[in-house]
Amino acid sequence: AQKVTQAQTEISVVEKEDVTLDCVYETRDTTYYLFWYKQPPSGELVFLIRRNSFDEQNEISGRYSWNFQKSTSSFNFTITASQVVDSAVYFCALSEEGLGGGTSYGKLTFGQGTILTVHP
Amino acid sequence: KAGVTQTPRYLIKTRGQQVTLSCSPISGHRSVSWYQQTPGQGLQFLFEYFSETQRNKGNFPGRFSGRQFSNSRSEMNVSTLELGDSALYLCASTGNVNTEAFFGQGTRLTVV
Prior knowledge:
The structure holds two protein chains of two kinds.
Chain A: E1 3-5, E2 10-14, E3 19-21, E4 24-26, E5 32-39, E6 46-52, E7 59-61, E8 64-69, E9 74-79, E10 88-96, E11 109-110, E12 114-119
Parallel strand pairs in A: 2-12
Antiparallel strand pairs in A: 1-4, 3-9, 5-6, 5-10, 7-8, 8-9, 10-11, 10-12
Chain B: E1 5-7, E2 10-13, E3 19-24, E4 31-38, E5 42-50, E6 53-57, E7 64-68, E8 74-78, E9 87-94, E10 101-103, E11 107-111
Parallel strand pairs in B: 2-11
Antiparallel strand pairs in B: 1-3, 3-8, 4-5, 4-9, 5-6, 7-8, 9-10, 9-11
C-alpha cells in the first residue's frame, strides 16, 4: 500500500526566509506520480506541481523549487524568500498507476500536511 | 474556464439523517473524485467516478455512496449520518490524459 509522510506538522518562519517542506513516500509501483498542493484558508486545494517517477529532474518555478530523489523516496519543496501570502497548509500526494496501465490521477494518497506560517 | 463547483458550501444535519452533496467538474473532464478531510484523519480518498462508473473506492463504510451522471456531474450521498461524518468534503475533477486533479472549494458538513 502507498503511504506519504510529511514529518513537519507546523513550520513558522519570518518573511524572506527560505523554507523547505519535506515529503517521504512509499509505494511498490515502479510508475507513480507525485504532487504538491497548497490549501489556503478558503479550503480549495491548489495544484502546485506534478512529477513522474521516471523524471528525476528537479524544477524551479519562480520562488518555488522541488527536489525529487528516488533513491531516498523523497520529494521536497522549497520556497525561497517566503512571503506572508505563502501561509497555508501544504500537502504532498502520491498517485499510482491505475488498472489497465492508465494512471488515475483522481486517486491520491495525501500526507498529513504541513502548516506553514510566514510572519511579517 | 469555470472551475470545479461544489454545492452547497455549508450544511448542518442531524445525526441519523442523510445528505447529498453535488459536484460539477471542469468542462470536458470525465473523472470526478471525492475526498473527506478531517482534523484527525486528514485527507482521505472516498471514491472516483469515470464515465458514470465507479473506478476506485476508498476504505469507507457503505453509508457513503456516489454516482456520476452522463454530463459528468457527480453526487455523493451519506446515509444515517454520524457525528464523525462532520468534515470538509472535497471534490476533484481530472482530465483524460496527463493532467492533475483540480479541486473545488468543498462542502463543510456539520452533523449535530
